[in-house]
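Module 6 notes. Inverse folding takes a fixed backbone as the condition and produces residue identities as the prediction. Think of it as a translation problem where the source language is geometry and the target language is the twenty amino acids. Below is one complete input and output pair. Work through it position by position during the lab.
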């Protein structure tokens, strides 16, 4: 479904921001799309306060490395093709090797075998991340919860459902299957910490420090065009800031030359639904930046 000029004018008059891609497809509230799962109904963002300031035009980050795979069709992508031979898992257990030199598959195995902090004792399994490794978008959350720990996938519990709705509203997918979606519409989702903290407590400083090299290597290998940092722990890991989300959102940040937009964690939005309007503004800001850089 496309918004007509009249509908867009009406939404704007209501204080709702409309995100319309400059390429072809519809993005917001595609309720007539029968191809997606029923649970991915488009969100109905709450009436927004005055739109957040949009970042000034963004220059393509000079430090961003060329990513030839990014424009390739899904079928052409083989994350393991550039990986060195995978060392035996047994050799990695307990000592994680040189994370900064690992290829994608090796990194995945190192995460699965990691015993660097005590979270390994209570986890069911590690949660490496999900999505296409050539995705232009990277979403960084906090840590797996109960469902994520059981399923081995990030954001599959209640906050994941909300995140899916928000991504869908921007026309983005976390699917890694070969559906023909371009890399610009794909999202990889990762967490700051790869194991569930018991009873969903906050990850501790040692746990964050032990896990951080995995996230940083994921970013190096993924070479995202835009990073969406959700919540305090993602912000701390990427921006080295303890400032609250409310102070950092609505403007552009950078991690090693990659644009970073920060927003509220979906779990917080479930508790504070009125903040969804601001989160939507943040997503629109990220989408505008990603499109400008495309
Ligand atoms: N919250 C997160 O930050 N990550 C998940 O994977 C699930 C919930």
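Target side of the pair, the amino acids:
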């Amino acid at each position: 479904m496309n918004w007509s000029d009249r509908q867009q004018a009406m939404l704007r008059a209501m204080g709702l921001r409309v995100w319309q891609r400059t390429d072809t497809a519809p993005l917001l509230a595609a309720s007539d799309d029968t191809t997606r799962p029923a649970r991915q109904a488009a969100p109905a963002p709450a009436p927004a306060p005055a739109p957040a300031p949009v970042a000034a035009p963004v220059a393509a980050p000079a430090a961003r490395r060329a990513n030839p795979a990014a424009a390739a069709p899904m079928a052409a992508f083989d994350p393991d093709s550039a990986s060195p031979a995978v060392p035996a898992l047994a050799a990695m257990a307990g000592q994680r090797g040189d994370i900064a030199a690992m290829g994608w598959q090796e990194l995945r195995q190192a995460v699965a075998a990691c015993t660097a902090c005590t979270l390994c004792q209570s986890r069911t399994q590690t949660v490496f991340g999900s999505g296409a490794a050539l995705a232009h978008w990277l979403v960084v959350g906090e840590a797996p919860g109960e469902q994520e720990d059981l399923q081995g996938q990030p954001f599959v519990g209640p906050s994941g459902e909300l995140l899916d709705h928000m991504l869908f509203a921007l026309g983005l997918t976390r699917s890694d299957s070969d559906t023909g979606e371009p890399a610009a519409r794909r999202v990889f989702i990762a967490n700051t910490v790869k194991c569930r903290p018991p009873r969903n407590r906050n990850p501790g400083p040692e746990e964050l420090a032990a896990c951080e090299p995995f996230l940083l290597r994921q970013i190096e290998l993924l070479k995202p065009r835009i990073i969406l940092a959700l919540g305090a722990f993602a912000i701390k890991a990427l921006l080295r800031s303890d400032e609250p989300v409310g102070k950092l959102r609505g403007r552009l940040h950078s991690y090693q030359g990659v644009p970073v937009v920060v927003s509220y964690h979906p779990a917080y939005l479930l508790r504070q639904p009125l903040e969804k309007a601001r989160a939507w503004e943040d997503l629109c800001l990220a989408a505008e930046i990603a499109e400008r850089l495309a």
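Reference fact for the lab report: Confidence is low (pLDDT under 50) at residues 24-94.
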